[in-house]
Amino acid sequence: MFSVTDTVNTVAQLNVTTFLCGILTDMGHGSGTYIQPTVRVPLSTGAPLVEATFFARSGQFLVEAQMGGRMVRAHLSDRGRLTDLLVPGARLLLAPREEVGRKTAFQVVAVYQGHDLVSLDTQLPNRLVAAALSLGALPQFSRYSRVQREVRLGPHRIDFRLSEGLDTCLIEVKSVTRIIDHVAVFPDAPTERGSHHLELLINAARNGQRAAVVFIIQRSQGCAFAPDEEVDVAFSRALRTARSIGVEIYAYVCPVSISGVTLGREVPMFASLSAVPLELRRDGCAG
Length: 287
Hints:
alpha+beta; 5-stranded mixed β-barrel; CATH 2.40.50.580; Trna Endonuclease, Chain: A, domain 1; 2 domains
């Protein structure tokens, strides 16, 4: 477990805003109290974000938007369909980009759906989890002192490998943006790559290694999480198999604002959308 001083120094390299809030518990044995850190990662670095109006998605990774009476093109990193979010007239947040050789002058950062700001940066969840691990904000992983990112396993990479001596844990992080009846669902498009990641974790668990998937819901809405069988049956089945043999599944609602995305509350996972209680789907978190 990192000390508070060590974690602040480590996370400073990730450009993370950290708040030390509310004493949660006495750690016992005369060691005093544990302060639970709240972790927030900025949406973008560099120039301030600018607002634009979505016009069209002219390619999987290309968006056309109106800004101040002119049309601009912006790169989109999210591979999902996003048909519920990228609708004509939707308000976008774009980050100016001036890198040499870049084909677009902007990067799509987020989109508003009503009053809810939804991040469309698929790398942001990894940065958030990295910061949370460094700060000990995910207590189920706090016993590991070493964190490795982008670990190669065969032809694929796993987002994190944690270790403490011979004790290791593999973690894959997934970005979630879609909500159906108060339930966050994944994937938004068929993901063969996602299924391969689950197979790696399943094999690791079968061999006695600890493994986990962390779904980061990049918006303030969502009372539960479930895989979307209508979009990808193979991924949904693989996730259920993974859970049944011991791969740990976690899902967190992470509110997004102009200042960044914040690690929020954990929500329950269900095997499918149809398994979510009717009152939760109907009434939301108050149900």
